[in-house]
Write a structure and sequence with these properties.
The protein has 311 residues and is α+β, with helices and mostly antiparallel strands. It is built from one helix and 16 strands. The longest helix has 49 residues, at 226-274. The protein is elongated, with a radius of gyration of 55 Å.
């Protein structure tokens, strides 16, 4: 799990004379070895592994075999600077300066969450404080914003507004007390469709996230449009879909009817072209033969007689 980006990290030591040095993963830390600037010999060890040694007279350095050696260097006389601190760097560091030995304990404190990206209101989550370098019997505990104490690992089921605020991870080492302060900022979550369950074992309140009733112990006001708004958008989407589908059906039917009309007209034209043509026939009698022209040799007809007038 990686550190949560929502947290504001602050490290504070109650006792200024503590022999432990606190840091966190990825940071750079300096371990002091007295106040002398000049020396004859200097050696740094991580446990029993040599990190490096310096000859004060010749100024030559000898590198050791410790895994932390590539990220370590001597700075400001006899101090040891470590860059890119890791959890496995925690433990005892021994500085031998002109025969005098000094032991310094490096404590690497890391805070992680699950899910690692963000904590959302009304969702499950885990907050964990780990201190590498402490003795096995050491106690690490959280102090909630309301003053209640909890173990080094807190499970939120679900996360409520009561969990917002400053959380203090406290532990002791060699009689000294150390605190780390984390400011939890809660991000609003998406609307929940199921009823919220009870919070963790130290959270005695029930949070109402986007609920429509007022159950006993409900302390938070409903937020967002909730389930009713979700169904409203679903109904709008379904209605729009059916409107579009109806318009498509109407367009398809219109085009189909046009094609049928064209096909029917084409068939009628073809049938008319296949019918035989009928011509009109006249039933009138034939005309009389035309008389021949020219003179006739027959006897001319007699002239009509005029009647006699009586006196």
């Amino acid at each position: 799990m990686k550190a949560l980006p929502w947290f504001w990290f602050v490290v504070s030591a109650v006792s200024a004379a503590g022999k432990g040095v606190i840091t966190k993963p990825g940071e750079r830390v300096t371990l002091g070895c007295g106040s002398r600037r000049s020396f004859k010999s200097l050696a740094w060890y991580h446990g029993s592994d040599l990190i490096l040694s310096v000859n004060g007279k010749s100024g030559t350095n000898r590198k050791g075999t410790a895994k932390i050696q590539p990220r370590s260097k001597v700075k400001q006389g006899s101090d040891l600077e470590i860059s890119g601190v890791k959890k496995e760097d925690a433990g005892n560091f021994i500085c031998t300066l002109d025969g005098d030995s000094h032991t310094i304990t490096l404590l690497v404190v890391s805070v992680s969450t699950s899910p690692p990206d963000e904590l959302q209101l009304g969702r499950e989550g885990t907050l964990q404080c780990e201190v590498a370098g402490l003795p096995p019997d050491s106690i690490v505990q959280w102090t909630r914003p309301d003053g209640r104490s909890d173990s080094g690992t807190v499970h939120f089921n679900p996360l409520t507004l009561a969990d917002k605020g400053q959380w203090v991870c406290g532990f002791s080492y060699d009689g000294d007390t150390y605190n780390e302060i984390f400011d939890i900022k809660i991000k609003a979550s998406e609307p929940l469709t199921s009823s919220p369950t009870q919070s963790s074992k130290v959270d005695h309140k029930t949070s109402c996230i986007n609920c429509f009733c007022s159950p006993p112990g409900c302390t938070d006001q409903p937020s967002g449009i909730g389930l009713a708004g979700w169904w409203l958008w679903v109904a709008i989407g379904v209605g729009s879909f059916f409107v579009v589908l109806l318009m498509v059906c109407i367009i398809v039917l219109c085009r189909r009817n046009r094609r049928r009309k064209r096909k029917f007209q084409r068939m009628m034209n073809e049938r008319q072209s296949e019918r035989p043509r009928k011509y009109c026939q006249c039933n009138c009698p034939t005309a009389a033969a035309k008389p021949q022209q020219g003179r006739h040799k027959g006897k001319p007809s007699a002239l009509p007689l005029k009647p006699l007038l009586m006196q």
